Amino acid sequence: MKQDVLNIKGKSTGREIVLNKSIFQIQPNEHAVYLDVKQYLAHQRTGTHKSKERSEIKGSTRKIKRQKGTGTARAGSIKNPIFRGGGRTFGPRVRSYTQKVNKNVKKLARKSALSIKVKSKNLTVVEDFDFDTPKTKSILKVLEALGISSKKSLFVLDNSKKNVFLSARNLKNINVLSNDDLNTYNIMNAQHLIVSEVALETIEKNLLK
Q1: How far apart are CA 97 and CA 152, in angstroms?
Q2: Confidence band (pLDDT; 50, 70, 90) for 24?
Q3: Same domain? 165 vs 62
Q4: What average pLDDT is seen over the chain?
Q5: What pLDDT does residue 53 have?
Q6: Are 186 and 175 in contact (CB under 8 A)?
Q7: Which residues pair with 16 in a beta bridge?
Q8: Domain total for the chain?
Q9: Whole-model pTM?
Q10: Which domain holds residue 40?
Q11: Which of 76, 96, 116 lies at the terminal end of a domain, its last residue?
């Protein structure tokens, strides 16, 4: 499949790039996408939540009242969970939310996500570009020229485009990633995908290994 290469003014450069069929034109596997996105979101959780249980509360171990004859329930410790200041029953503990997803499944998920973007015509290939200085106005002009200023967009560039990264960091609906950091979640979370020529070559090389 051929795709026009545009410049940052939204005009065609007169060049076309061939998208690899085994990456951009496969039958999307929705379950693979689900597993990869689920793993990504799980890994964002630190798992440091913790509440003190009965054995961890500081306090006297003296029996607070006699066993019988008080007319109320039996109670043996001030650290009992039913009392204010007592330990929490079945409270959260420190844990890891790490999930394992097979490497080939992750590749299939990324291929599926890219194929979905191509099929829905939400992928644009642009020639390599950078800004002389980091300016938010510069990236906004690019979005307006490409006709996607109202969409949640993801730019995928090579690592050297530092000024583009800095120009977009204050914009809520714009994300800029290097080709090595591209993942299924970010592809699916964006309404439109803008990929540079160099980044596209690297993506294809990584997914065909």
Answers
A1: 28
A2: very high
A3: no
A4: 93
A5: 93
A6: yes
A7: 4
A8: 2
A9: 0.84
A10: 2-45+101-207
A11: 96
